[in-house]
Write a structure and sequence with these properties.
This protein has helices at about 1-5, 10-30, 45-60, 60-85, 105-115. The protein is mainly α. It has a domain at about 10-35 and about 45-85. InterPro entries: MFS_trans_sf.
Length: about 120
Amino acid sequence: MGGLLLVPFAPAGLFLIAAGASAAVVLILRFGIRERPGVASGTGVVKRTREVNRGLLGSPVTRPLYLAMWVPNGIIVGCEALFVPFAGQSGPGICSPPARPACSSVTWSWAASSRPGTAIG
């Protein structure tokens, strides 16, 4: 999502949007959510967490859903972890402005700052 937002907005604008969203969340948490007493249970937190996790991961319905959420995210993070260290060796076209939507904001910032004289944005 952040990479797509770099197309219509400059990085400074995205920081302002993020700050505004954070301020809105703080106001919602402060004034929009009332305090409620906690629910006491007889089991410990760790024991209850293990029971719930065992139930969720043991279910043939929810296990594939969790794998569908976890595996793609792990692959993306792994690819970026390999991509960023080699970005400087790839030449000037790796995260140039026309290809910017394909690059994450971290990759774009790192690749641009590692090459002095490269125009950002």
